[in-house]
Write a structure and sequence with these properties.
alpha/beta, 11 helices, Rossmann fold, single chain, 18% strand
């Protein structure tokens, strides 16, 4: 796995927060309901009565879902100030009387931030964008209280991850016009692939649902610009979590065995701290 001090700095990252701020304008009751259902799929009823830590809060949608499922307190953190501002705006509007706070904080600074430990630490599609995936896993795991849950989603390693790493590094720092051209090329390839497998592309876009709540257009931008980028196999994840003293509760794995031509999906894991 790549470790670079430079990659740990937000200034070297893709502008995830701006993309989330744009998406947050599209949040509807239906999207909130999807987020709640997705969270229940992962952890059932275990959110109720727990302190919840959202590492990489993005739009704040899943922090809102945690509050709706009975979390006693939500602490939402993100390295990107735009994500923190978006989360604050969303929770102020939709959960004004709940107990929550949003902080600009790197996963690597959680121990120094004084937040304490949590019954449930959630980080969906974030830790592989930190510049040090293994270190980020350790930092997130340290925030889990004994007996608590760690919920993470991590990019599945594919044969073409090396190519996407090059693409993301370029795209993240490219001019907006160049990014638009690259997105158009990707979508054209996506349409072709849809035709090959007999999928109606327009219907797919209209009904598109990502596990983080994004629509198709925002998700494409997020995927193509997601720098820094790392990926990991389920076996590597299991080994890392076992070494940290966690036992598996459940997982939802991408079993399609893809080459990675159009990208990699996320494997979802729920682990309990012994």
């Amino acid at each position: 796995m790549v470790h670079s001090d430079d990659l740990l700095q937000q200034s070297t990252h893709f502008a995830f927060g701006k993309n989330w701020a744009s998406y947050a304008e599209l949040v509807t009751p239906a999207k909130i309901a999807e987020a709640v259902a997705g969270l229940k799929r992962l952890v059932g009823d275990e959110v109720a009565g727990q302190r919840w830590l959202d590492v990489g809060c993005g739009s704040g949608l899943h922090s809102l879902a945690a509050l709706q499922l009975g979390a006693t307190e939500v602490v939402a953190t993100d390295l990107d100030p735009d994500s923190v501002a978006t989360t604050r705006a969303l929770l102020t509007k939709l959960a004004p009387s709940a107990i929550w706070r949003a902080h600009e904080c790197s996963v690597f600074d959680l121990a120094q931030a004084g937040f304490g430990q949590f019954g449930l630490v959630y980080s969906w599609g974030v830790l592989h964008h930190t510049g040090d995936l293994s270190g980020a896993l350790r930092a997130a795991a340290a925030a889990v209280a004994p007996g608590g849950l760690l919920v993470v989603a991590l990019y599945r390693k594919t044969p073409l991850c090396w190519l996407w790493k090059l693409e993301k590094r370029f795209y993240a720092h490219a001019a907006p016009r160049t990014q638009r051209l690259l997105r158009a090329s990707y979508i054209a390839l996506y349409k072709l692939a849809s035709r090959v497998i007999g999928r109606n592309f327009q219907q797919h876009v209209a009904e598109y649902q990502s596990n983080r709540g994004m629509d198709f257009a925002h998700d494409v931008h997020d995927w193509m610009g997601g720098w820094p980028y790392e990926s990991i196999t389920p076996a590597q994840t299991a080994q890392a979590m076992s070494a940290l003293g966690f036992t598996p509760v459940r997982s939802f794995l991408d079993t399609r065995g893809r080459l990675g031509l159009l990208g990699s999906g996320c494997d979802e894991y729920v682990y309990r701290k012994a």
